[in-house]
Amino acid sequence: MGLVDDDAAARFAADGLVAVADGLIDPAMIEPLQARFEALFAGDFETGTPPDEVNWQQQTGDPSLTRQICNAWKADRTVASAVLAPEVGEALARLGGWSGARLIQDNVLWKPPGGRPLGFHRDNAYSRWFTPVDMLTCWIALDDVTAESGAMELVRGSHRWPPSFEPEVEFHGPADYRCPVAGSEDDIVAVEVAAGGGSFHHGWTWHGSGPNRTRSHRRALVIHAAPVEARFDPAHLDEGMGPVYHRYRPPGDDTMPDKHFPIIWASCHRGRHRG
Ligand SMILES: O=C(O)CCC(=O)C(=O)O
């Protein structure tokens, strides 16, 4: 059955999101990951390869912001083993109706006590640099999360709203984090789960999170994946996150190199961790 059963898959199709109470990660991994979060934000890149995006570091970061690093798997073996877990890849592929799941980007997120919100946005709005624009996300809590500690919030059914490639929203610490979805507050679902639980969401689902009003940390590991067949889209390389990632495009070739965008799981057993 894997991480998502038929009922969860049906809810995902209807709502563009599904919360999962637990089991998204081996419980024995949670403490080591928390320790590696600390190291990564202190600039300790274990493999010698830096992450693709480092948006916060201990020496220079605004302490009121949610700390963020993207593609930390390249820098850290513990993060890599969690992000490349085939069980998550299989669940993403199943929810997306894909034959396999390719990692586009991980996100290491740490909202400390007093940490400011993350503005509502849609992941696909940043994803026009590859085709098809079809991304799904697994969000894994590494601490027990409540609405008060700044749980992830998603707008039920918003994956069916018309697509738009204008990600002109403020991601880090906006004054009104729900502004882009004003009027839809009744449809907001907060992912309140224990560490090890989390959610899956569709690339067009609007989501964000409020401030951390508690004394507890709120850390999460996020896996953004696309169908295994995804390729660079030369017509839109400069859009969304394209300027960060198109440097990995082989000259004259739109193939996404497995080295930079690894296959997490594939039905034909091409996955990195499958025999
Ligand atoms: O953790 C959050 O509040 C937001 C995470 C997010 O944007 C995502 O998982 O796509």
Would you mind describing this structure in some detail?
The protein has a single domain (6-266), classed as Jelly Rolls, CATH 2.60.120.620. The longest helix has 12 residues, at 30-41. The chain has 275 residues and is an alpha+beta fold. It has helices at 6-15, 30-41, 77-83, 86-96, 242-245; strands at residues 17-20, 53-54, 67-70, 100-111, 118-121, 130-131, 136-141, 152-155, 188-190, 198-202, 207-209, 218-227, 231-232, 263-266. The strands form 3 sheets. Strands 1, 2, 3, 4, 7, 10, 12 and 14 form an 8-stranded antiparallel β-sheet that branches. It has a 4-stranded antiparallel β-sheet with strand order 5-11-8-9, with no helix packed on it. It is built from 5 helices and 14 strands. Mean pLDDT is 94; it is low at 271-275. The structure holds 2-oxoglutaric acid. 2-oxoglutaric acid binds at residues 109, 118, 123, 137, 139, 152, 207, 209, 220, 222.
